[in-house]
Task: structure prediction
Amino acid sequence: MFANFLIGLREGLEAALVVGILVAYLVRTERTHLLRWVWAGVAVAVTVSVAFGAALTYGPKGLSFEAQELIGGSLSIVAVALITWMIFWMARTARTLRADLHARMDTAATAGPVAVGVMALLAVGREGLETALFLWAGVRATGNTTDPLVGALLGLAVAVVLGYLVTKGAVRLDLAKFFTWTAVLLIVVAAGVLSYGIHDLQEAGVLPGLNSLAFDVSAQIPPSSWYGTLLKGTINFSPATTWLEAFAWLAYMAAVLPLFLRTVRVRAHVPPTPAPEKALV
Result:
């Protein structure tokens, strides 16, 4: 549940901040007649994201077990790739996000109201599709219960409220630190989703080694126990892990985490590009 709460919080806050920046900029530049186009784009983005999540959930039903595992494993790996790209994209662009959005809004407003709606659709839709895919992969990894969905909805709700308060200036939040620490936690979650995706592909018969276990601590950490459930819900820990799953988890952590931390350190020492608008973080 915590992992899905974190996903909903992080992705939801990104989307909420984007919308807040666009709305505040239109109000400040006295172009409030374009606000309805922003909200129309946001509404379409949310609808498409929900429809995408529903298609992921109900689309594979009726297929064979192997086919479902193949689809599930493949999409889990795609979800990890997308969330990894998002983490590094935010690390590189967070400091200039506000100025970039303002410039893109000026261009869209010049082109016409439809362009403004399309811009809002693309800006929020990307976050929505990434969230739907990663949450779906996380739900598959943690089991068929309502806890992951509840956690995600709570995270999104907190993100909307927090995003509103931040854009209104009612709450001061160090967004650079927030996105850095949540990114580190998401990397751990993504490693678990990748491991689970590998397991799905093993069950589908695409990858070998399904019965070759690196360790099996099911007796010490029963999956049905509260601590087994906690570990599964937070880091997607599996008491019975194959060698290939373990290798995928370790390889991802060893490659992505140091590279991300290095990217954050390098960006912290790069002076921000001069711009008429102050960067968001």
Summary: Confidence is low (pLDDT under 50) at residues 274-281. Residues 2-268 form one domain. The CA atoms of residues 205 and 273 lie 51 Å apart. Residues 113-142 form the longest helix (30 residues).
